[in-house]
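Worked example 3. Consider a protein that binds KG4.
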Amino acid sequence: MNVLGIETSCDDTAAAIITDGTSIRSNIVASQSDMHKKYGGIIPEIASREHLTSLIPVVNEALNKAEMTHRDIDAIAVTYGPGLAGSLLIGVNSAKGLSMAWDKPLIGINHLEGHIYSAWLEGLEPDSNAGFPIVCLIASGGHTDLILMKDHLEYELLGKTRDDAAGEAFDKAARVLGLGFPGGPEIQKMSEKAQDEINPLPRPQIKNSLDFSFSGLKTALVRRAESDGFYPAVDDKGPSVYQTTEYSFAFQEAIVDCLIRNTKQAVLETNSKAVILGGGVAANSRLRKRMNEVIDIPVFVPRAPLCTDNGAMIGAAAFFNLKNGFPLQLDMDAVPNLRIGLTAE
Ligand code: KG4
Ligand code: ZN
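Given these inputs, the predicted complex is written out as structure tokens:
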């Protein structure tokens, strides 16, 4: 079964062709980050306008790269939430149009479920060779969720961020440190040059909960930057290279520790058989390395381009939904605040 997966929930316009939920025939992503860079964050209006102009060319490129035409496609899958309302609408409405024009079934996919199914593009067997349950940590610019996957398509939300998402925290810290957008990759790059964690930042923890909180960590960084006299930057004079590298490392260590601490606790509490990482923050090399060191069950971390937003994960998730008789939806709408799984009582 060949599925065209379409993803436009944030600032990446993406389309991919996936065969049987596990094999990538093509995976095209048109990133808008250069457009948003000069504003230091994502501007929703710009994002939707870019999706509108890029989506059909990206879909055509995905078909060309897979050496297919629309006749080879069995179904169209599109992210319908969570995400930016305007961005989601472009994807959903374009997918509806293609579904009608090509006479193909249409299925709406939860973006978070897509991130989870990236792991099946990276060697997890269709029936899960590791076994269920699986703890999934999805950390990106918009969400930081710990999800228990009890079986295919069966989820329970174990924890979430109470304030900033992990990626958002990286992006805000990068701004304080005078680094570019998106902040995560910049902070990772600077961290690699740091000697040691000489100035540790706090690891916020919420008692008796698997929830996260990152806004206090950002405030702690701002306070240090103020007392060191480089923030707010005066006369364009920001932190020294030494301060940038040391604080980048301290900030990255604090976030990585919080993410690993709660993931480890979730594994213990649920007796899980494996861990899946996903979302843009899972592209962080320090998190990937440390998670593998600390967790003693298999950890599935997709390659970085499959951690950040892409259409392949939507095509993969669609296959497993279609296999399980998920209803098709030509009348679906974008749901910007869509959640995954129910919170345990
Ligand atoms: O999943 P994603 O591409 O889009 C959203 O759904 O948000 O994630 C983007 C986020 C940004 O906040 C970015 O700073 C962060 O992921 N990110 C990283 C890295 N690469 C991207 N954070 C830490 N380390 C990285 N290497
Ligand atoms: Zn995402």
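Take a moment to read the result before moving on. The radius of gyration is 20 Å. Residues 2-117+305-344 form a domain with the Nucleotidyltransferase; domain 5 fold (CATH 3.30.420.40).
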